[in-house]
């Protein structure tokens, strides 16, 4: 398979998805969700492709992508690490926890680690106030984290 053909495969899949979903009542969010699964994120080129295929303005797609926080225009890590910044976590040391995690990964909040493993994100509440401060990786919740060693041991579990 030539490199050009390999590059086109994701776009062929996306075109199929658009054909399958375009007649739904409000297909855009579902199409964007699947496009993000295919590409890993939604760069402007993918948004332009969807706009052309659906005959809608790119600005409409961009507006949806930037409105919903589950869409990303930048590549994300293999894991999303959400640090709870809700009131209980904040009072119990969430800013310190966020700084420790950022230091261990060498990655600022909202960015993806250089090795592509983690994307750091701050969230309002994860519903685990009794474990404050808390962070979540996928379905795994980690609470009462007080030291850099604890952070390093937890992050080492994810490859």
Q: How do the helices and strands line up, and which of them pair or pack?
A:
Elements: H1 3-21, H2 28-39, H3 44-54, H4 58-67, E1 79-84, H5 87-91, H6 94-105, E2 118-123, E3 134-137, E4 140-143, H7 148-155
Parallel strand pairs: 1-2
Antiparallel strand pairs: 1-3, 3-4
Helix pairs in contact: 1-2, 1-3, 3-4
Describe the structure.
With 159 residues, this protein is an alpha+beta fold. It has two domains: 3-67; 79-155, Glutaredoxin (3-Layer(aba) Sandwich). Helix content is 48%, strand content 13%. The chain is built from seven helices and four strands, in the order ααααβααβββα. It has helices at residues 3-21, 28-39, 44-54, 58-67, 87-91, 94-105, 148-155, and strands at 79-84, 118-123, 134-137, 140-143. It has a four-stranded mixed beta sheet with strand order 2-1-3-4, covered by helices on one side. Helix 1 packs antiparallel against helix 2 (28-39), helix 1 packs across helix 3 and helix 3 (44-54) crosses helix 4. The two termini are 30 Å apart. The mean pLDDT is 93.
In short:
With 159 residues, the protein is α+β, with helices and mostly antiparallel strands. The protein has helices at residues 3-21, 28-39, 44-54, 58-67, 87-91, 94-105, 148-155; strands spanning 79-84, 118-123, 134-137, 140-143.
Tally of individual domains: 2
Mean pLDDT metric = 93
Name the overall outline.
Answer: elongated
Just name the CATH architecture of the largest domain. Answer: 3-Layer(aba) Sandwich
Q: Identify the CATH homologous superfamily of the largest domain.
A: Glutaredoxin
